[in-house]
User: Fold these one by one.
Assistant:
Number 1:
Amino acid sequence: MASSYDVVVIGAGFAGAIAARDLGTRGYSVLLLEGRDRVGGRTYTGEAFGRPIEFGGTYLHWTSPNVWRELQHYGLKLDFPHHIDTVHWLADGRVHHGSAEEFGQAAASVMARVAADARQWFPAPFEVNAVDTSPIEQQTMAQRFDSSGLSRYERDVVEGVLASLSHSYDEQGVAQLLLLVAAYCGDWAGYFESIGSWPVEGGIKQLYDGLICESGAEVRLSTPVAAVQDNGISVTVTTRAGERIDARTAVVALPLNTLGDIAFTPDVPLASRTMIDQKNPVLASKIWVRAKGEIEPFQTVAPIGQNPINVARFDSYHDGDTLIMCLCSDASAIDADDHEGVQRALRVFVPDIEVVDTASHNWGADEFSKGGWIWHRPGNLTGGAAQLRAVSGRVRFAGSDIAGLGAGGVEGALETGAAAAREVAGVLADGSY
Ligand SMILES: Cc1cc2nc3c(=O)[nH]c(=O)nc-3n(C[C@H](O)[C@H](O)[C@H](O)COP(=O)(O)OP(=O)(O)OC[C@H]3O[C@@H](n4cnc5c(N)ncnc54)[C@H](O)[C@@H]3O)c2cc1C
């Protein structure tokens, strides 16, 4: 049965949620189609160990303008991060131990060298193509490390620091790192704090639920979309179940790694099609660990390939035990349910740690994400992603995976979702469509 809406928004992650909210509150009729049986996308406040747990995107920051505006709009606060007493970092074949400040100093000089030219290539980070970036857009992270004149120790430090964002230094480009560091005025530590320190008090769920609730949109869960056709006078969205839905416009807010499952007519620009075919290389995982007893707050850091857990960080005490958040660059390198394997990986740093329980969500195996956060292959940040954002007509694209400023985080999802909504509202209001 055909229906008619002003806008169909496809995907109920943060990009889709804010697009639906901004169009719904402007008075347009919005249908929000979501493949999963829940909203929130790659952010997901679930339950484990008898308490709420963030399985996906967690940390937000006041320096992200869209994030901060929405937190304030819904009256949400950020929780203080816990102070870490000791950092254990694997470099040059052995584990080093020091305070958080000492590790910060070890990382600072190396990171500053690796990202020294960030502002040269992205002088106005809100416009990724403000200058010709071709000399660095083709450079992989590994090539950047090779050309930075690093000692073995320095290279391990930088590969450890960046492991919490990465999957493969040979596959990922350096441009996204430079853009995001440029966004923090060249201060890599500021960028790192923004993406990894401050959780939402009471859970990030409140933010995505707030947006969707205020949108007034008709929300259909468990409704994966298979095709989107702009036929010149309307948009026809076809679900996997074969239902055809007509609307004046559509916002597509899907992860890069699922865009290839949708038939677009007309097709997306060539550079964007190439990016979709190449896919986001990040197949990382986040594992929550419950360790026996109350352990002194610690953090571990390991380069990719040298330990299956690249970052483990104290989160909180819970019922006499310690909860630890672990990031693994390669989800296939460790089985999150194998308590002994997880314990073995952690014992490299904390020899007497006892793992009692673990919890995780496999984002790479999940058919509605097929991967983690975006970290582009060479060429796609300023190419395919920028071109997909610029698509005009009845179908617009949004999502953290195609964001410029804010790429890879909730900020990028909110920014692109709000931008798509502004453009759609503009054309709907002037009667063009
Ligand atoms: C483990 C992990 C930790 C992270 N940590 C942080 C962090 O601390 N801070 C931060 O800012 N960011 C973090 N991120 C990144 C952040 O979560 C994402 O960048 C952001 O949530 C993406 O939002 P989005 O709306 O662009 O995409 P998504 O959230 O992926 O939303 C897309 C939606 O589309 C739906 N969908 C997919 N295919 C179809 C289909 N065919 N039909 C209909 N619906 C479909 C999906 O189910 C999903 O709901 C993390 C990500 C992961 C995986």
Number 2:
Amino acid sequence: MTHTADPAPSPEIHKSSLTDGPSEPRAPGSSALKRAFQCLALVGLLLPLLTSCKVSSHPVAPSPMGQVVSSDELVARLGEPGPVTVETVVAAEWMVDRAGLINLDHDEAKAHGLTSGDEPIHIAMHVLRHPTRGVYLVDTGVERAFRTDKGNALIRGFVGSAMNVDAMKVHVDTASYLAAHRIEPRGVLLTHLHVDHLTGMRDIPNQVPVYLGPGETEARGFMNLFVQGITDEALEGKGPLLELQYARDPAGRFAGVIDLFGDSSVFALWVPGHTAGSTAYLARTPDGPVLMVGDACHTAWGWEHDVEPGTFSNDPDESVVSLRRLRQLVAAHPHINVRLGHQTLPPQAHARASQTPKQP
Ligand SMILES: [Zn+2]
């Protein structure tokens, strides 16, 4: 689940008219017991419906882009300057619950006294400029409506309140950024399909293809009752979501690796856990490699202390593995510049993380 607040309260089924009659004597507490069983039966009937809702009903298709490679090929090129530039645009500041961003049950989090509460974060997009393939966006920033027409913004109303959208302060919207820089994107590379990564999607022309990891629309859950409509609205009018066709990384560093342009300039790394298809992107620039991890790690504290994301993630165990894999890559190649999902890593943190001992 993405950065949403607690689910809506359950319907007040305890106050239904299914109460017992007044005449028959019964053991104390039996009516309460009966109501409890009725509630359970109702929940049992509704639960499959409530949890069977997908993230999105938007169509998907296999991505024709890129070729599967071993992470050995990526590692072999890390020392060489590359042709792509990366600009990280911080579109907005926001505030969400730390418990979603960091696993507060982790011993390290407990040792540091981390507790639930507001954590300042940002929403970003990364602008990748390739000398011959054009401009690609990693994630989407924030649409203009969040600045100028909040009543019609992608996240609004009840869901907007639940997601604390009033706390969002927009610095630059995607439409304005693209116009000011005369950018016509050739593609959007999503790190994953959560709504806080789609907030700028409606500012991007519909003909621009959207790529992402596998299985992103398929996750089931109660909150998708609210999220699916927003996700579908963000994608309305666009072509099918193009799923990257990963295969197992023979070198075992990641779940899968794809050389997106076939020239070793930009790699997609499959890092499942936060979501099934979560993808990090590594771009080789003239100044060295830049690694955009998406929400495999939201926060600087999580990266520095090797603590995986919290309740926002689908699969906590996979989240641990994927974060460890990304940190191991950076530990072995400390010149990699890391861009986190929702915070900026201080320069000294790169050095500290690179001193992390390698794990088996
Ligand atoms: Zn996010």
